[in-house]
Amino acid sequence: MTKQQAQVLACIDGAALTEAVCDYAAWISKKTEAPLKLLHTINHHHETSIKSDFSGNIGLGTQEHLLEEITNLEQQQSKLKLQQGKLILQAATEHIEKKEIFPSSTQRHGDLIEAVIDLEDSIRVLVLGLRGQIHESKENQIGAKLEAVIRSLHRPILIVNDTFKTPERIMLAYDGSEAAEKAVEMVASSPLYEGLSCHLVCVNNNEETASKLLEQATKKLHSAKNIKVISAKLKGKADQELCAYQQEHDIDLTVMGAFSHTRLHDMLLGSFTHKMLINTKKPLLLLR
Amino acid sequence: MLLLSKKQDWLGNIRGDVLAGTVVALALIPEAIAFSIIAGVDPKVGLYASFCIAFITAIIGGRPGMISAATGAMALLMVTLVKDHGLQYLLAATLLTGLLQLISGYLKLGSLMSFVSRSVVTGFVNALAILIFMAQLPELTNVTWEVYAMTAAGLGFIYLFPYVPVIGKILPSPLVCIVALTGAAIYLNLDIRTVGDMGDLPDTLPIFLWPEVPLTWETLQIILPYSIPLAVVGLLESLMTATIVDDLTDTTSDKNRECKGQGIANIGAGLLGGMAGCAMIGQSIINVKSGGRGRLSTMVAGVFLLIMVVFLDEWIKQIPMAALVAVMIMVSIGTFSWESIIHLKQHPLSANVIMLATVITVVWTHNLALGVFVGVLLAALFFANKISHFMYVGSVLDEVTDTRIYHIHGQVFFNSADRFVSNFDFKEAVSKVTIDLTHAHFWDISAVSALDKVVIKFRREGAEVELIGQNEASSTIIDRFGVHDDPEEIEKVMGGH
User: Fold this and answer.
1) Stated pTM of the model
2) Which residues in B lie closer than 8 A to residue A54 (C-beta atoms)?
């Protein structure tokens, strides 16, 4: 991995969570010493018409005239959006610079998924809000594009859903799966988690398996410097138990593997990641 | 796969799509009737086709917001088939056309559109406009003065009504034209031709029927010569229209899916008693202008058209042909590329020749496929001619060794091969000739044989011949595709230019 160039990419859209997204991104950038980049995407809704004329006739040059007219209208609209985006980026930059981190910023046309896929190679961690502008008021829904982004990007993604609080206690959800294994390695090797206490939590109805799994993972984490490991065994439904544990122990950040099953599996049985995204009150760091 | 579409394509613009679809349906009715008359079949054949094609392409077409229905380009190709063999053979030919288009969609032949240059497209569009106009002339010859007056009044309604404050922008002016002229004709009790005189209108919903033709080799021999140009013209016009809609809406479309969609739509039309059709340039522009963007607009156009004609057939029968002619003249004016006339002076002569040759061929033969063929052929020849000028042979004489060194730069291929040979001075008496091919590109066999000829000639004059850089020069002769993706490979092949 080319860690030198890889950036912390924060996706902002001016919604309520923008500030928190910036704060978390700044925190990661500071701890990992990776450069921070702010991304704003300008979405165009070409599938919707701006103006309509029902005169229903066509004359000489109608096509050329129509193209000119639509182009002018869209140009004005896009200019406005571009300008708005610039302001959002500027505000965010100023906010972050107070913490003595100097982010770069970029604007891209099209939707968020396209943008992050295009930038994937330069991303170290993606930070984005749970809900964007459109879904701001809907409590029980996650942002429409969020799942698509998580599924299509193969980089760690931090989902921010609340105002910033410097993480001190993290929870690592561990079930022995490949994704969870990777998560453990990640936590052990990344400078991000230095000096934090890590709650290693395993939800498994079979106590023996749980102990065995925890033992393995704890060993790995101990090899890392400066992480306090506290392990816990839980029984019951994973998402509910984890959320309860989170509240009980005042966890600031949850780390877990995400969407390890196929879309079909999730459609039939429901996705664990999806449930966690809805239920959790604290930021989630998803590892793919 | 063909049924997959984004929710946005259907529901992204509901209000705009429904209203635009309605406007388009109203304009489609006179067109479908007029094109049926061109083809020589009952108006219901064109109306059923328009419903069916619009409905199917709305669901499986590759270009949301594009309007497909019975078209003039296709109608013109089937005239003799209908005249000689009747409607049933037309339906069979329509089925076969659809099948051919479907196959070409799977073979990804849509990408062949890249060979059709801008000038050919312009020529196609202009020729189509001229043909649609010419098809109206029979309605305007040997008729009473009332018909001329009605047609002129109709055009007046179409182009002036939009300037009426408020209602001018709400009511489609072609509809106003038709309603007003029909009203006038009934009120004044004019004895002029009406749509009802031209044949049957639909009185029921379309029903499934298999064409009543013998499934024999002879049948295929009859319909195939019609189905091939129908398939080609249908795809050409559809893909051109898709590009126009792409440009207008600043979105992209799936061209191969569009080919498959057109194919299935024509199969559907053939099975429901309709004639072959394709995308319509004029209607698609009207749709975009009216605010239509999504698949819903095309579907509304198709469904609304069918409802209108089935329930209002008594009224549609009374529409005077003069009103239809006025609408069709509007369509032909709207289809014509006005820009191409303005740009005649600025464009290079070759571009104008290609455009005009396409137009002339089509107007002469009434076959758009032939016109495009001529246009593409001319464009290729002009291009070859232009490229052949990028060849140059320089030479120096090394007196010490009595050697003449030729340096070849540029493109050597069938068109420049003769000029390549003529650049060598065979009369010069030297003991050695060196030909440096490092910066030359030998594109085909003609180039290689020209070089062989040069070598042999020099040897016959008693000179030793040495070739330098043969590998570099001939590396272009191999038909290697995909080279263009690799900058290093391009540098190897095109190096030095």
Assistant:
1) 0.82
2) 19-20, 23, 169-172, 290-291
